[in-house]
Hints:
By secondary structure, the chain is mainly alpha-helical. It has helices spanning about 5-10, 20-40, 45, 65-75, 90-95, 125-130, 140-165, 165-185, 190-215, 220-250, 255-260, 265, 280-285, 290-300, 315-330, 340-365, 375-395, 400-420, 425-455, 460-485; strands at about 55, 85, 110, 115.
Amino acid sequence: MSSRKTKDFDEMTAFLGDYGSFQILMIVLLSLSTIMCGYTGMIVVFVSDTPEHHCKVSINYTRNATDVEVSFRNQSIWIGSDSCSRYTLNRSSTEAGGPHDTGRPNSTEPCLDGWVFSTERYTATIVSEWDLVCHNAWMVPFTTSLFFVGVLIGSFVSGHFSDRFGRKPVFFFTLALQTITPLIQATSVSWLMFCILNFLRGLGQISNYIASLILGSEMLSPTARMSYALLGHSVGFGVGYALLPLFAYLIRGWRMLLVASAIPGLLFIPTWWVIPESPRWLLQKGRVEEAELIIRAAAKRNQVQAPEVIFRADECLELMQNTGEERQTYTYLDLIRTPNMRNITILSVLIWTATSMVFYGLSLNTSNLNGNVYLTCFISAVIDIVVYVATWMLVNRVQRPTLICSAMMFCGIMLLVIKLVPEDMHVMFQVLALVGKVGVSSAYCIIFVIFTELIPTVVRNMGLGVASTAGRIGTIICPFVIYMV
């Protein structure tokens, strides 16, 4: 949609005001829809966490297996030196002196009888469900990466489907997908089934997030649009993230935790009769009468008088024709055709990739930080919410380049300082990691606004698509980076 058309629409609907009852209702409802996105986007922290574990000793393997397992809990060396192996026990050695014999076996073997997982923190995760440890440990980051592959695909298809079928149908379809998928996923009987559904959950999560952002932005004035994108939409995501550790603390099993993630989607069904289609999209499709009915309903809710004719059909059709011509003129090559566009494109790709990797790297790694994982995750979410509000307050007071550069540099410095902290200073390590997250959270929520303003309208969708795709690739790689370090 060209800038001229957007300006004309804003001028023709200016009589509605910025924050009337209609706008506030749309901001609240669509922001609430992102709570589910924040919850499901970070649920892997608890669903895929690895509990403490050790080798299981078969009752047929030794004459006194109970003593062997008790001795392991007392850190005896008879089970093995790590959680992936145990010392070889044979009948002759146990009969001779049992596990307390001074003659200790020197050879080790894999955990042939499986593992015993601690239930102190969780009753079950997918790791304990399918023994995803030791030689199968790579399956855990692979599962998370598949979620982000779904996010990558969803970033592509959601925009196309929204343009073709409408913002509202895509929003509610992806909301249904994001609701039904975890319910089915909670019944997974194998790791493969879980992975396939995890991919679909990622596709639904990002598609719904993008659809709600587009739908809300196209119904609001420029002033309200900025508040919705930075304050309402982002804070809603942060609230969902904050609710996750609270639910996880009360629900210690991964299956019921997934079921709980579907509750907001079920509660959102009645809003189908409240949230309208985007009037901008209706105008783009030439459905002028439907767009006018929506604006008149909004004017009635805001208690303002609407003009006798809001949209002139001939003017709208003329604008659509101009927009179509502009879209046919430009290609992806225009993103690198001029030095200025080339610099903007390269910077957008690099910044989006870096911020995505660091943001999700810190968020998904909270379970690996020493301390209470529930409290650490909650603090991380609260930091995000505070940062989103602070960024909204600063975005019109501080120059955009200064804001994003300061945020990224602050995060980078904190992460470098962490390397200087001794390994036994766990609290200091946690504090620096969470303080560093302040910077990357600010950068992550402001990049969309900055590059929307920098990239020309005629190639904006393509430019943002390229940068966003680069960021998704970073999030796909991120789980394996965490796994390797």
